[in-house]
Write a structure and sequence with these properties.
about 250 residues; alpha/beta; Rossmann fold; 3-stranded antiparallel β-sheet; 9 helices; 9 strands
Length: about 250
């Protein structure tokens, strides 16, 4: 079905010994939709993301990725997912073009090197192709990671702190390219960030998590109006202080 969610999470739970990291989370991301998963440190965001990507095995609940609900089924469609985190390093022994070409092969691209070169040009960093990962600034590494996550035109892009280390002009270019991909190719985008201004710019919908539970899931404007707040940062501070009594 055309309107089937790209990602659907129901009743997700994950415990680490006596600590419950995720406690019954439900949300979904539709085709072409831009959604932000936000919350304080320790809220369960990373555990949720890693569960969706198959890196963490949940204790309870279901995750459907592109209609596949079993771990084996989700692994079969991971080549249609792109993931990048602004804090992850690049390999020290590969040039940027070699690193991206390797991922192009893993994604099953017919001409991996050409796809990698096109991705670098698309994000305005083609001059980094021959650079080693150790030669790049933190912002350059972040952009290369986003190229890796988007160059094969996946159905779902998952980005963790995608613009945290970027200069304003580079962050604008990244947002513009992501918007184009979502609109032109109906690509879904799921992002996490502690920068609420950046979340407002990137996301159409915000899922707030606190203490392992979803406490709000709506547009920024609607959540802010219900809570009597004026912007997403104020909403974040309110929900962080009152995770069990949000009124939304």
């Amino acid at each position: 079905m055309a309107d089937q969610p790209v990602l659907r999470v129901r009743g997700l739970r994950k415990r680490y010994r006596r600590h419950t990291a995720v406690d019954g989370i439900d949300f979904q991301v539709g085709p072409g939709e831009r959604v932000a998963l936000v919350g304080p440190n320790g809220a369960g965001k990373t555990t949720t993301l890693m569960s969706c990507l198959g890196a963490v095995l949940p204790d309870d609940g279901t995750i459907e990725l592109l209609g596949r609900g079993t771990p084996g089924g989700r692994r079969a469609v991971l080549d249609r997912v792109g993931y990048a985190a602004g804090y992850l390093p690049l390999p020290t022994h590969l040039r940027v073009i070699e690193y991206l070409t390797l991922y192009g092969k893993l994604y099953g691209c017919p001409d991996p090197k050409a796809v990698a070169q096109a991705g670098l040009r698309h994000y305005g960093v083609e001059h980094l192709a021959r650079s080693m990962g150790t030669e790049l600034s933190s912002g350059q590494r972040t952009v290369v990671g986003i190229v890796k996550a988007t160059m094969h035109r996946p159905a779902l892009i998952v980005l963790d702190e995608p613009t945290a280390s970027l200069d304003p002009d580079v962050a604008l270019r990244v947002r513009t390219r992501l918007f184009e991909q979502c609109e032109q190719h109906n690509t879904a985008l799921l992002v996490t960030s502690h920068n609420m201004t950046e979340v407002e710019r990137l996301a159409q919908r915000v899922v707030f998590i606190a203490a392992g539970r979803v406490v709000a899931d709506d547009t920024t404007e609607r959540i802010a109006a219900r809570l009597g707040q004026t912007n997403l940062e104020d909403v974040y501070l309110h929900l962080n202080a009152n995770p069990a009594n949000t009124g939304v």
